[in-house]
Structure to design on (489 residues):
């Protein structure tokens, strides 16, 4: 009997959290369209996540492109299809690896920091202080973070795409002996606008997922240092799972 | 502002934190809420402030159930200062986030009132001491000229000398500005020094009430044992 009670408790907790999360998203949109818009706060936040994320984004892009070129060569050389390497590198990066890897890296870098910061604010009563100062925390905390990250991720993905292609180019030309002009021509000729846009669309979706999940985990964290730690872990784990699972459905949409 | 609370009940899940609270906060007086940790003092003042909804009972502000909470202000237990903002931005928070720029004179004047040197105006909360943080938090609470100020354990974490200074400061400020004050504390000395009326809460109900100057003459057994536990010589 106790076992069934425990299962019931877990299920109730899961569904109540899902319900709370959906309400949280609805409230976000409510206050987004009836805003008290703190423009300075929004711009400041956008710049801060942009600057702090660039090194990680650059490293993700360059190494992904380099590895992709090497691995593609290993497979394609077995049936003399090495010439397809530029096409594979650019296609895989723009449609798949660019948005997914960027999403995962940003979830670890920015999502965790959003959750930890907001959870700490909750633990130290700063969220209550905002309320006493007549400041809506959706407008002051949630909107800037969600808007900034949703708008920043497509820019990050574009950078990863570009740097990744350059990584593939460096390995292909300097290690695998490709003709440099031919490599770039193949890349540009093969890439269609639709390939790029499908990745950008995913980037918008992933940016929204990371930021809204991280804000939620922070705002509804438990008290104490343990609560902050759990909120941070949950933000990264839930964002990553949602990125990977929604990626399939978004890919099907553009298939 | 006079606030009357009748039969207030508040629970979290199945746990009743406030079981049946009735009390009156008199206008321009200093009311002290005493009680052990976890007895629901903070929940009570946050409910009065409308940060929490209550389950049953009533709260009347000057006889009305609705109130503009802009007339209220709160000093939080650990200050609750915003780490990423400077001291001046913390004190003038609402003006700062609404892009107003002419708040510096008012900030300096308030800093002077709470005994802070203006040299720290551009520092961040992490760069100042615990006592200074309390003063900054008090200045922030006073910035919007409140009619009622709620003080959640204002001397927590301070040494006896700084506690006395903060108590004197609070007394001076609320008297000078004619503010209704509601203070949570478990420090009997502070209650006697800064309060007019007290309410002692235990297990979610008011166990004792009276004049702060007569706290040590209480006949309530639970309150007596609380006082002796607080190491006050009678």
């Amino acid at each position: 009997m106790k076992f069934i009670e425990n299962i019931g408790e877990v299920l109730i907790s899961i569904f109540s959290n899902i319900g709370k999360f959906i309400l949280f998203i609805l409230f976000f949109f409510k206050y987004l369209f009836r805003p008290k818009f703190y423009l300075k706060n929004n711009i400041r936040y956008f710049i801060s996540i942009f600057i702090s994320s660039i090194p990680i984004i650059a490293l993700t892009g360059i190494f992904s492109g380099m590895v992709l070129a090497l691995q593609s060569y290993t497979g394609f050389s077995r049936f003399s299809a090495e010439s397809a390497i530029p096409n594979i590198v650019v296609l895989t990066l723009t449609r798949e690896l660019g948005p997914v890897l960027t999403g995962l890296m940003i979830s670890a870098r920015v999502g965790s920091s959003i959750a930890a910061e907001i959870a700490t604010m909750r633990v130290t009563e700063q969220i209550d202080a905002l309320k006493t100062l007549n400041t809506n925390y959706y407008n002051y905390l949630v909107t800037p973070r969600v808007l900034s990250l949703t708008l920043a991720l497509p820019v990050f993905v574009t950078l990863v795409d570009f740097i990744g292609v350059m990584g593939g180019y460096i390995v292909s030309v300097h290690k695998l002996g490709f003709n440099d002009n031919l490599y770039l021509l193949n890349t540009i000729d093969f890439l269609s606008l639709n390939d790029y846009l499908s990745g950008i669309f995913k980037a918008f979706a992933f940016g929204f997922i990371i930021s809204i999940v991280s804000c939620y985990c922070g705002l509804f964290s438990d008290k104490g240092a343990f609560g902050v730690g759990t909120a941070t872990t949950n933000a990264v784990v839930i964002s990553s799972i949602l990125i990977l699972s929604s990626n399939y459905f978004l890919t099907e949409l553009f298939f | 502002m006079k606030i009357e609370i009748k039969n207030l009940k508040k629970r979290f899940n199945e746990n009743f934190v406030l079981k049946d609270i009735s009390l009156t906060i008199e206008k321009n007086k200093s009311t002290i809420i005493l009680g052990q940790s976890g007895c629901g003092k903070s929940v009570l003042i946050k409910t009065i402030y409308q940060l929490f909804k209550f389950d049953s009972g009533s709260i009347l502000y000057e006889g009305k159930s609705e109130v503009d909470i802009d007339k209220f202000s709160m000093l939080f237990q650990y200050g609750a200062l915003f780490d990423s903002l400077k001291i001046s931005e913390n004190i003038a928070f609402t003006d700062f986030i609404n892009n107003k720029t002419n708040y510096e004179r008012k900030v300096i004047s308030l800093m002077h009132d709470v005994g802070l040197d203006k040299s720290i105006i551009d520092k961040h909360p992490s760069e100042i001491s615990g006592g200074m943080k309390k003063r900054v938090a008090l200045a922030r609470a006073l910035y919007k000229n409140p009619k009622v100020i709620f003080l959640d354990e204002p001397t927590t974490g301070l040494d006896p000398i700084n506690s006395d200074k903060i108590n004197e400061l609070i007394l001076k400020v609320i008297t000078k500005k004619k503010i209704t004050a509601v203070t949570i504390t478990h420090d009997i000395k502070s209650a006697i020094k800064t309060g007019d009326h007290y309410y002692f809460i235990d297990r979610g109900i008011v166990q004792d009430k009276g004049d702060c100057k007569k706290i040590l003459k209480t006949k309530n057994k639970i309150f007596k044992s609380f006082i002796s536990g607080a190491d006050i010589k009678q």
